[in-house]
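User: I'm preparing a small set of examples for a lab meeting where we compare how different chains pack in three dimensions. I only have the primary sequence for this one, and I'd like the structure in token form so I can line it up with the others. Please keep the answer compact; I'll paste it straight into my notes.
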Amino acid sequence: MSNDPTVAPHEFVDVATHPETRGIELVAPSERHGRARDLFAVWAAPNVSVLNFTMGATLTLVLGLEIWQAIIVIVASALLWVLPGIVAISGPAAGTSGSVITRAIYGVIGNKFVIAFYGWFISGVFLALNWVASTFMGAELLRRMGMENETLNIVLVSLVVSAVTVLVAVYGHALILRAYTAITAVLLVIFVVVVGYILPHVDWAFTQPEPLEGIGLWSAMAIGFAILASTPLSYSNSADLARYLPRETKPSHIIAATALGGALPCIVFTSFGALLGGAVSPEDLAFGIEYPLLDMVPAWFGPIFVLGVIVNTIALNGMTTYTSSMVFQSIGIPIKRIPSAVLVGVLGTIFTVVLALSTSLIDAVNLMLQFLLIISAPTMTAYVTDIIMRRNRYSGFDLFDETRTGAFWYSGGFSIGGLVSVVAGGAATALFLSTDIWTGPLAEAIGYIDLSVPAGMIVTAVLYMVLNRSRIAAQNAEYEAEHGTGQAAA
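Assistant: Understood. Below is the structure token output for the 490-residue chain.
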């Protein structure tokens, strides 16, 4: 077996019935397979989610928006799904994980710090955020079935869901590609039935008792946009799911399949969540949308609905665990991908139990999603900006060159321009963030209008282009001289 980190074990075969032994190693041209349209289901399955109902209900029941105002915010935030689509095209271009590709942004050593925190620790938090939803619903269903010990129910559901999630991550890419198409179809049927039971409860003439206007309206819409925008901005792992595609796959098809797969379920089911403003009260939402939803569906359908929520959570977190399992390898820790996946799952399980026992779902979702923007908005923006500036031309072999003479060693292993851009972007995001716990001084100065997302993205993109323009132009010229003007050769 080769010790070359750019070469996968020779016995590796990407099939759904065997655990995936490949980590960050380059995908050889002979191993490339699949079609761009396969990515639609990969991104749809995780986003046919009960969290969409929760976030939609937040817009009307917590933030006080009218239904039509909420739908405008939902559609506007869904446009950001084009960003994970753009990130996805770097996977086939480089033939490796996004956690390796970002060496081009932060430098070989600088990337280790960014990925170690964002790609592993934050992944654990994100796992917990999604596991909490299914944990609450599973625990509530067990309570209704006669199991009164809430703590025990929460722990049991968390352990079962996390165990299956890690199993999905262990089998990896081929299983995800094959299973998620069927999962998407099943989840769509379940959630459409749920919507059918919701509709008779909806007050189509619903209006807020005290309609918002002026600064108050803009503040509510901006906060809602920030909460919803955190979902597409968090998916900087999309290159990992696309890296097996043939290099000649059209980037436009990859972008479309990824973006539409994520955006369409979010738009549809978050909009129905907003309609719940006319069906339930804010008090009903205090501990999560699962309680009123279970009351709206027949008793016989309740277990099916909960199972659908759990399957969705496994689909989402199976993908997240899979991609974050390559982080240790990308930062140089000698660990295989499979044990790394187990470690990430353990971290997420601990966070899940703590969150589920200490807070309500609605509080956990809203606060965590907004605060994650401080990291996700600038890092996603820097990634997309780098792809555009390089015209998506990455050399996989150059990315694995960690020597001082390598293309991405930069200054002592750090890209000052890349790191300054994301730190400044994170600071701008925090200054314009408006939450119950933290309100940035600039957000407060403009009437608590949360401009965290546009502020963070604009600052990051502008600084990245200004600080890195000359260097990337020179690297582009070197690449063209070596490889021609096509996409990067892995």
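A couple of notes for your slides: The first helix runs from residue 38 to 47. The two ends are 20 Å apart (CA to CA).

User: Perfect, thanks.
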